[in-house]
Specification:
heterodimer; A: about 325 residues; alpha+beta; Butyryl-Coa Dehydrogenase, subunit A, domain 1; Butyryl-CoA Dehydrogenase, subunit A, domain 3; B: about 375 residues; Butyryl-CoA Dehydrogenase, subunit A, domain 2; 3 domains; 4-stranded mixed sheet; 12 helices
């Protein structure tokens, strides 16, 4: 039993952290909220250059051939930055399917030259539809790859406008199956786990922002962070983070190792990470007070992403139900 | 990262399971009563004779030199087998780590084997009538006795768990009357049969007489009763609190076993099942798993030489709140049957309610987390 990342994995995370601090500050997230923005910033291309978008694809097709354990810390960083890109959908869900599908070239997606997005819902609503060239969609338990020309997109509003949701209409008859059965179930689990990792990152971000604010903000002649009521809100958020994170890393390992209970481990991770993010969002806002409620202040960008992702790929109740069916 | 157990760890687990399966006593009364305590001592001595009482200690003191991971495995197996509370816990889990860290070789040789063998039974003399959460406010005094070559202790300790049944007590006393707060304290090891000690047991909320007050009236103790340096008792005490709040006192195995019992109850009561209670059951079970994996992560970091410090406060809040929720959920499943308490869940619930209070209230822990983990200002 050794429950820690390697030095290389930590160094990779630090490189991504640095990249996103530079390429995806809150101004870029806010820009992605703009009416006709499409893709903003350089982060997607840079992640592609680093090999992260093709990290899970086998080396035989040009990917890095790495595992969920290598990816999980990087996805956590994309959550921390609230990166407005389909990185979970593309890198975590789709790439292994494409890498394994016979006769299918993953090449165009490895560096993000083409963008994939996906939804596991039977009436699919996909995020980041505005920039996607290909769609990975589900019908009768199988995943299909569908070109943009073969789908009809109807944009719908998200509370997180950077997510660019669209309803997708499509015909399975005109699409190609790239995975079914076990592969399809595993793809769902990778989506849930990747989203859980992003929620951990968002939790950290909201906590960091709030700690910084309550140290700075003074009322009654002292920093508000010296008041116990404020301390206890933030301590509870920190505890939620502390105990969600190991479940997320453990599920990443189970997926990488092909553990027979990996689906249950993923559900434990997603349920706990969703709850941690929602709790932290609530406490972060409360500790900010009115400034946190203003549109100009950045906190809501992260809160809204947390709300969206807490429900995406199965909310806490769905995942606890899945755990319950396994253990009861 | 490798989340499988090594062949050695699996072998150790199998050995634990086999011995515990054959030897764990069932149906022992509470060890927090005078009669129950005596019965528990038989069990503690059985554990010691088979070298399972203190598995993480060196062999020379009766242990097995087990790694922290092996110790966690032992704990999982101990509680999974239905092993009872450890009435020796305040000695072996709280005082012993401090004796290993601060004791002289003479003290270690004198104290540890008798502690492991349940010959000396240790209780914790920390809280006082006017020093609970505000531990640095303790008033019990230690006055130098040059002629006698020792110290004279006076004052009162309280809420001392199993104090009426124990033979020895450990705790800080004010040795420098000029110093304030956490300065000028010295950590003493006090035999409760010393002249001038009066121990009075009293009842707890759950009906057991497991509390005690300890009155000290000019009690002489020799110099070798001092643990660590004179006037440095706060630092010594803090080393113990870290063990108390962290994983040694309440390892995940205990809560995993409770969570398993909750699952069994949920299955048994399926006819009464409400989706809401089922959700709470699953949530509590997941949280027990979260504690387990957080602990494996922590132990790996400790093995790598990281110092965890105030992080143990997060652990304490988490396991104590979890224990309450596990029991609350069971009571919901039991409905009106809970009142008769044929299953023991209500008794367990009452004990669980003490968790957010003892070992430093959870309010104090949250202050510690905010100030020392998050870096918020004290004032």
């Amino acid at each position: 039993m050794r429950f820690a990342f390697t030095g290389d994995q930590i160094a990779f995370r630090d490189a991504v952290r640095e990249l996103l601090a530079k390429e995806c500050p809150p101004t870029v997230v806010r820009e992605a909220w703009g009416a006709d923005a499409g893709r903003v910033g350089r982060a997607w291309a840079a992640l592609g250059e680093m090999g992260i978008l093709g990290l899970l694809a086998p080396e035989s097709v040009g990917g890095l051939g790495l595992t969920s354990v290598d990816l999980v810390l990087l996805l956590e960083e994309t959550g921390y930055a609230a990166l407005p890109e389909p990185v979970v959908e593309h890198a975590a869900v789709a790439m292994p399917l494409l890498g394994e599908a016979p006769g299918r070239s993953a090449e165009a997606f490895l560096a993000g030259d083409q963008t994939l997005t996906t939804s596991f819902l039977h009436e699919p609503v996909v995020p980041y539809a505005d920039r996607a060239e290909q769609f990975l969609l589900v019908h009768d338990g199988a995943w299909y790859l569908v070109a943009r020309a073969d789908v009809e997109l109807t944009p719908i509003e998200s509370i997180d406008r950077a997510r660019r949701l669209a309803r997708v209409q499509w015909e399975p008859a005109r699409a190609t199956v790239v995975g079914d059965g076990k592969a399809a179930a595993a793809a769902f689990d990778r989506g849930a786990l990747g989203t859980a990792a992003q929620l951990i990152g968002l939790t950290r971000r909201m906590l960091d922002m709030t700690v910084e604010y309550v140290i700075e903000r003074r009322q009654f002649g002292v920093p508000i962070g010296s008041f116990q009521a404020v301390k206890h809100h933030l301590a509870d958020a920190r505890i939620a983070l502390e105990f969600a994170r190991p479940l997320v890393y453990r599920a990443a390992w189970s997926l990488a190792a092909g553990d027979q209970d990996s689906a249950v481990h993923v559900s434990m991770a997603k349920a706990t990470a969703s709850d941690a993010a929602l709790l932290t969002a609530k406490h972060a806002l409360q500790c900010h007070g009115a400034i946190g409620y203003s549109f100009e202040y950045d906190l809501h960008l992260f809160m809204k992403r947390a709300w969206a992702l807490a429900a995406a790929w199965g909310d806490a109740a769905l995942h606890r139900d899945r755990v319950g069916r396994a253990i009861l | 990262m490798d989340l499988t157990f090594s062949p050695e760890e699996d072998g150790f687990r199998a050995e634990c399971r086999e011995w515990l399966g054959a030897n764990v006593p069932h149906g022992l009364p509470s060890g927090d009563t005078r009669d129950g305590f005596a019965l528990h001592l038989d069990w503690e001595r059985t554990l010691f004779d088979a070298r399972w009482a203190v598995v993480s200690w060196p062999e020379e003191y009766g242990g097995r030199g087990a790694t922290p991971m092996e110790w966690l495995i032992f704990e999982e197996e101990y509680y999974a087998a239905g092993g009872p509370q450890r009435v020796t816990q305040n000695g072996i889990f709280l005082l012993a780590p401090t004796v290993f860290a601060f004791g002289t070789t003479e003290q270690q040789d004198r104290i540890l084997p008798r502690m492991a063998g349940a010959e000396d039974l240790w209780c914790q003399g920390w809280s006082e009538p006017n020093a609970g959460s505000d531990l640095a406010g303790i008033q019990s005094k230690a006055a130098r006795d040059e002629a006698g070559g020792g110290w004279r202790l006076s004052g009162q300790k309280t809420w001392t768990t199993r104090g009426a049944f124990c033979t020895h007590m450990f705790g800080p006393f004010r040795s420098d009357p000029e110093a304030e707060r956490h300065r000028g304290l010295t950590y003493f090891l006090v035999p409760l049969d010393a002249s001038g000690v009066t121990v009075r047991g009293f009842g707890r909320l759950d009906g057991d007489e497991g509390f005690a007050e300890v009155f000290l009236d000019d009690v002489f103790v020799p110099d070798d009763a001092v643990l660590g340096d004179v006037d440095q008792g706060w630092g010594v005490a803090m080393a113990t609190t870290s063990a108390e709040r962290g994983l040694t006192l309440r390892s995940p195995g205990r809560f995993m076993a409770t969570a398993q019992r909750l699952l069994a109850l949920q299955r048994e009561r399926r006819s009464d099942e409400s989706p809401q209670v089922r959700d709470e059951t699953v949530r509590a079970w997941i949280d027990a798993e979260a504690y387990r994996w957080q602990t494996f992560h922590t132990v790996t970091r400790m093995t790598d030489g990281e110092n965890l410090g105030a992080e143990s406060s997060m652990t304490k809040v988490f396991w104590s709140d979890l224990d309450v929720r596990l029991h609350e959920t069971a009571l919901e499943l039991l409905g009106t049957d809970a009142e008769r308490d044929e299953t023991g869940w209500m008794k367990g619930f009452q004990f669980a309610l003490s968790g957010p209070i003892y070992a430093g209230t959870n309010e104090i822990q949250r202050n510690v987390i905010a100030e020392r983990v998050l870096g918020l200002p004290r004032k």
